[in-house]
Specification:
The chain is mainly beta. Helix content is about 0%, strand content about 50%. A 6-stranded mixed sheet has the order 2-10-9-4-5-6, with no helix packed on it. A 4-stranded antiparallel sheet has the order 1-3-8-7, with no helix packed on it.
């Protein structure tokens, strides 16, 4: 059974930082391209960042490039999202998912950026 458990979210002031984690189980993690997504209230889920299976290549949506950094630890079946200089518009529920998608979405981790 494929599962994803996200953690590390919280309430932070604008300009602050958070580090999100996602641990995957039930799949051969090291061969999958992995992505972080987010969904804000009343909005569609959007792709935030992606990382290749070996971690060599990363991509980011324009709104987070230069502020967020995606990384992975294949030995622990985990990916991470270091988020710096957070803005109120980064407020959302954050999820991880491989590409191509496997299993169901996890519960996500809530990030709230507010003064």
């Amino acid at each position: 059974q494929v599962q994803f458990v996200e953690s590390g979210g919280g309430l932070v002031q604008p300009g602050g930082s958070l580090r999100l984690s996602c641990v995957a189980s039930g799949l051969r993690f090291s061969v999958y391209y992995m992505r972080w997504y987010r969904q804000a209230p009343g909005k569609e889920r959007e792709l935030v960042a992606g990382i290749s299976a070996g971690g060599e290549n990363t991509v980011y949506t324009d709104s987070v490039r230069g502020r967020f950094a995606i990384s992975r630890d294949n030995a622990r079946n985990m990916i991470f999202l270091q988020m710096n200089d957070l803005k109120p518009e980064d407020t959302a529920l954050y999820y991880c998912m491989p590409a191509p998608p496997r299993g169901d979405w996890g519960q996500g981790t809530q990030v709230t950026v507010s003064p």
